[in-house]
Amino acid sequence: MKAGIRGIIAKVAICALIATTSTRPTLATRPHPENSIPTKSQADWIAAAVVAIGAAAGLAIYFAVRPHHQSLTGCAVSGVTGLELQSQGDQRTYALIGEVAAIKPGERVRVSGKKQKNSTSTTQQFFVERLAKDYGSCSSAPAAP
C-alpha cells in the first residue's frame, strides 16, 4: 500500500515537472529579438514559480518517504512493571510506556507509537504516543480442562 502511494506521488511530481517545462520555440514561433529578453518583473515571476515547484516537489518527496509510526493491536493487561500489551500480530508482550492514561486493563486496543530498544528487560517496551482505537473488552479464551 505504501509503495503504491509513493508511486502515485512520484508520477504526479514528474507530470507536474514535465507540464511546467517549456520547449525551445521553433523558428516560426520564435519571438522578435526585442521581446526575447524577459523584464525584471517576468524574471521575478519565473524565479517564484521555480521555487514553488521545488518546494512542492520537496514536500511530496518528504511525505512519500517519511518514517511512519508503528501501531500495535492487542489486549492490555496489568503486568509486573505496569501496563502491558499482548500483541496479536507478533504474539509478543510489550511493556507500555508514554501516554497510557486512557488505556484500561482488559481492553482490546490499537496503540500508535514506537518500539523501544531495551536490552536490560526481558519484555520489549513500546512508547505509546496515542490510543488509536479502543475495541472494547478482550475476548477471553475458554479454559482448558
Structure overview:
It is a single chain. With 145 residues, the protein is α+β, with helices and mostly antiparallel strands. The protein folds into two domains: 2-65, no CATH class; 70-137, OB fold (Dihydrolipoamide Acetyltransferase, E2P) (Beta Barrel), CATH 2.40.50. Helices cover 31% and strands 30% of the residues. It contains two helices and five strands; from the N terminus they run ααβββββ. The protein has helices spanning 2-20, 40-65; strands at 70-78, 83-87, 93-98, 107-116, 124-137. Mean pLDDT is 78; it is low at 141-145.
Intertermini distance: 44 Å
Using the 3D structure, state the CATH architecture of the largest domain: Beta Barrel
Tally the helices: what do you get?
2
The CATH class of the largest domain, by name, is Mainly Beta
CATH topology of the largest domain: OB fold (Dihydrolipoamide Acetyltransferase, E2P)
The shape is rod-shaped
Give the uncertain stretches in residue-range form: 141-145
Largest sheet geometry: 5 strands, mixed, barrel
Mean pLDDT across the residues is 78
H/E series? HHEEEEE
Please compute the radius of gyration using only Cα atoms: 27 Å
Order of strands, widest sheet = 1-2-3-5-4
Annotation, overall tally of beta strands: 5
How many structurally independent domains?
2
Residues in helices, as a percent range: 25-40%
Question: What structural category arises from helix and sheet content?
Answer: alpha+beta
